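fyi for ur records
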Amino acid sequence: MHVNTWSNYRTATTPVPCAVAIACRAVVADPLLFAAHYRPRRPGRPPGAAE
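which gave:
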């Protein structure tokens, strides 16, 4: 999600889509669920792409 989109949601200039609202409520209700599936990307190329 782009920073401008997030800013528009926070200032209520753009309505939050239903799917995003549902996802946010799910993360608030069970943060461990989000943490279990979140894997930050490693910088650089994947090992297989270096060849």
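The helical segments are 3-11, 18-29, 31-37. thats all i got for now
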